[in-house]
User: What shape does this take?
Amino acid sequence: MGDYDEDTAFLGQTGPYYWTTFFLLNMVFVSTGFNGLYIVFVGATPKHHCLIPDVNLTEEWRNAIIPITAVGGEEVQSQCSRYKLDVVRNLSAEGYIPRKDVNLTSLEQEGCLDGWNYSKEIYQSNIVTEWDLVCSNQWKVPFASSTLFVGYLFGSLISGQFSDRFGRKKVVFISLAAQCVAVLLQSFSYSWRMFCIMFLFVGASQISIYISAFVLGTELLSKTMRVVFTALGAFLFYCIGYMTLPWIAYGIREWRTLLAVLSMTSVIYLPLWWFIPESPRWLITQGRVKEAEVIVRDAARKNKVEAPPVIFKETLSLPPERKYTMLDVVKSKNIRCITLMCLILWMAINIGYFGLSLNTSNLSGNPFMNCFLSAAAEVPAYIVSTWLLKKCKRKALLSTFLIIGGGVILLIQFIPATLHYVALALEMTGKFGFTMAFSIVYIYTAEIYPTVLRNVGMGMCSSAARIGSIIAPYVIYLGKHVVLYSFMCQPQLISSSIFSVINNDISNLLCSGFE
Assistant: This one.
């Protein structure tokens, strides 16, 4: 067949058909924003301490049985231990008064043998409170978060093959239905293991929605609309869903009900099946030219233009081009170096981005407002990056925003405890920097690879990004166990900033060597 853009040039660059398709496809991305990061609330750890059973204790001993520990210069109740119950009960029965008659630091301690008592100030229930994912089981929370991103990895590997075989539209809507079912089943999880397994399917279906809808939009829209769709539309509508998520979670504090409601958001997209067409480009590659012509003629009718009698012109078939693989990437020393550094950049930027996104529940202040601000910080990042990419060199932009992303987070460690709003503003600035860096590195990577290796290189970098997102929850987990504590937020922010500084060095090396 001839060139598709030339054959359909009579449709124009804008019009009712293109704008309708643009908004309908972008509405699908709102769904990915809803379901992408609800683990921030579902997996948040509320304040807790050992449960004290209903035994004969005086009020003084019941208040003193939980040891006091110092965290970041602040005295708080121990979350994972208590003074030995039998000893405390005997002291209480004998009439001793804690701190006056007994030195509490000399008493033997034990674990939370009777479970935990959780604060319901913020969350009525979530997976942490239901399955006691604290203390020795604390590692299960980042593991659960990582299963979502493992699903991203698998979904990104198979969605392209499925959409090439069965069509972009079918994969989008099958993935929407799969996401709905997976989130709904997850809300009925009877164990942590089932929750993780369903989270794997949630991640796979969600990334399939994103990739397939993104490809469908680039193939349906005109050149002018395509630029807006790929540069801004998909990202901004994802942010709309992301910004809406904390307010849904604010209204629904019980995790099973929250997931059931979020699963239903996918259902409202299913009627769009009758309004979003299949990709004519894909139909042509499958030899279904008549079906492609029907879609294009319907587009002409909606745009109020007249279609020619013959839309797709026959041309001489060209011999098949050579297919390149990952082996071709490592053959050349130059391309090998580019690939190695791009893999590190993509992985570390994703660690920083998702580390900051998942960390919002650990920041001081209202976790729902923190999540909203973290999502809102992405909106200007996408808009500004689109504008700056037209004006500035990639090297300066990438280096600048990597420094911003990591540098301001390092500054948080020196902010006094009384200036928590300053610390929060710096954290959101860091999120802005990481979002900008990701937008820029995506474009820069596509430009730096030769045309014949671009798809292979971008695919490898995308896989590295998934690995980075899988690691991100463990960066947060690691931050809770290091010696350094921030006044206002958990020290996992240090890890993200260090990754960003390393990235900046790699970026400069990459740019200076191959620009």
Q: What stands out?
A: The first helix runs from residue 4 to 7. The beta strands are 48-50, 68-71, 74-77, 81-83, 109-111, 116-118. The CA atoms of residues 449 and 457 lie 7 Å apart.
